[in-house]
Amino acid sequence: MADVLIVGGGIGGLSLARELSLRGLRATVLEKAPQLDPVGAGIIMNPNAMRVLERNGLADAVRADSSPYLLRETCDARGRKLALRDYRPLYDAGKLARGALVHRAHLLDVLWRSLPSDTVRFGVGIRDIVLGSAGVRLSTARGESFEADLLVGADGIHSEVRRRVFGEFSPVYMGYRSHRLVVDNTGIGHFTEFLGHGRRIGLVPISAKRLYVWTTFNSPHDRPPRFDSVADFRNFFREFTDPRIAAVFSQLRSMDGVILTAIEELDLERWAHGRAALLGDAVHAMTPNIGQGAGMAMEDAAALAEELAGKETPEKALESYARRRRPRVQTVMRVSREVGADGQRSGMIECWLRNRRLQQEGRNAEKALAELEGLLRYPNEEESWARSGTSP
Ligand SMILES: Cc1cc2nc3c(=O)[nH]c(=O)nc-3n(C[C@H](O)[C@H](O)[C@H](O)COP(=O)(O)OP(=O)(O)OC[C@H]3O[C@@H](n4cnc5c(N)ncnc54)[C@H](O)[C@@H]3O)c2cc1C
Question: How many angstroms separate the alpha carbon of residue 171 from the centre of ligand 1?
Fold first, then answer.
């Protein structure tokens, strides 16, 4: 029904192009980077994200270079086990799609390769956007012009489409920052996280050979830390004395390739305006604590494509899309924020109490799995329609 112009060729934008092409809708993606972003980090594809990929036919390709997400172990800073979450009973019972731990570059590559050639134009900067009642015209810094029935901003947390079409909205800094890096995997078999005092480290095997490592640490907004050397970096995380962490630090020769990110949130009430909509981080950037930002962008993409294929006008489709997605995204965003606040506790006593609580909760595996199932299940059609208050 509609030609769609997508600004941003990240996980959200490429997922939307995939979902649209499966439904016979034409999409063009304008990406400002000169090529696919080969960022040196891993990503957790939770069961709901993998369910989107199963439905759009890309799960096998993603899993071909990944580790299965079977267990999540939580330890204190010295490596003493607090809890072990085992996803296998939920997978074996067919309740969740099997999660995957992957390199971002591989995920982006699979998405990009799945698209008709010429779908993605790289190295494109926006000069102007004119939104009309029947469509949109976008001109680029190189002097090209694109016309489409619909514009989707999938251009991330600092979205240009959002600024031009929806107005100025600033992300909110959450009080902590994060490092991400990839090193050789010297024997980590499952996702293992270590909780310190206002600091955390996570080890995520993305293959038998590669390990994705993330940190978080409390940090004042206006004073970003400087890690001039590996020695500074290691010293900053010295409370983590477990040999598994020491094995990571011992591999580092320089800080090149270590990505430092401020953790921010953004939650827009308005997802659509006339013939324009936002998707992914452009409309709902969330903390990374439960590995769901990209998963939500992929769910958005599937829902938006379904609505565009099923509704008689783009405006109605965009309205349903926003109504259908916002409650789910807000729940996930809230849970992620709470997990982060708990993880970033810094006082001796509060950390001790947190660790003791996690240990106790870990003993009730059934309750923990039931809670997880609700969050990690891809919202099925009946639920979506019920929430939107309309019938299919
Ligand atoms: C530390 C950290 C860890 C995370 N871990 C996970 C995880 O394990 N699992 C998970 O699901 N999520 C995770 N996330 C969240 C996830 O990275 C994001 O939610 C996801 O990348 C959002 O995808 P997106 O396509 O909406 O935006 P982006 O990934 O930001 O992509 C936006 C794209 O738009 C392009 N762009 C920007 N401006 C323009 C412009 N003006 N014109 C054209 N193109 C433009 C950019 O170059 C980019 O390619 C994590 C986030 C952080 C910060």
Answer: 14
Separation in Å, CA 84 to CA 288, 368, 370: 20, 10, 15
Range of the domain at 308: 4-171+265-380
| 288 falls within a domain | yes
Q: Domain for residue 184, yes or no?
A: no
Residue 376 to residue 379: CA distance in whole angstroms? 9
CATH number at residue 131: 3.50.50.60
Asked if residue 155 has its Cβ within 6 Å of ligand 1, the reply is yes
Q: How many domains does the chain have?
A: 1
Which residues, at least 6 apart from 250, have a Cβ–Cβ distance to it below 8 Å? none
Atom of ligand 1 nearest to the CA of 49: 11
Q: Which two tokens stand for residue 297?
A: 């962008």
Q: Measured in angstroms, how far is the CA atom of residue 293 from the centroid of ligand 1?
A: 8
**Ligand 1 atom nearest to 297, measured from its CA:** 26
Ramachandran sector of residue 304 (left: φ over 0; alpha: ψ -120 to 50; beta: rest): alpha
Which residue has the CA at smallest separation from atom 26 of ligand 1? 280
Q: State if pTM tops 0.90.
A: yes
Along the 392 residues of the chain, how does pLDDT read in single tens digits? 569 999 999 999 999 999 999 999 999 999 999 998 777 799 999 999 999 999 999 999 999 999 999 999 999 999 999 999 999 999 999 999 999 999 999 999 999 999 999 999 999 999 999 999 999 999 999 999 999 999 999 999 999 999 999 999 999 999 999 999 999 999 999 999 999 999 999 999 999 999 999 999 999 999 888 898 999 999 999 999 999 999 999 999 999 999 999 999 999 999 999 999 999 999 999 999 999 999 999 999 999 999 999 878 999 999 999 999 999 999 999 999 999 999 999 999 999 999 999 999 888 878 878 878 888 988 764 444 444 433 32
Distance 11 CA to ligand 1 centre (A): 7
Identify whether 182 is part of a domain: no
294 CA distance to ligand 1 middle (Å): 7
Q: Which of 305, 337, 179 is nearest to 249 (CA)?
A: 179
Distance CA 304, CA 324 (A): 9
Pocket test for ligand 1, best of 200, 279, 281 (most atoms within 8 A of CB): 281
Does residue 239 belong to any structural domain of this protein?
no
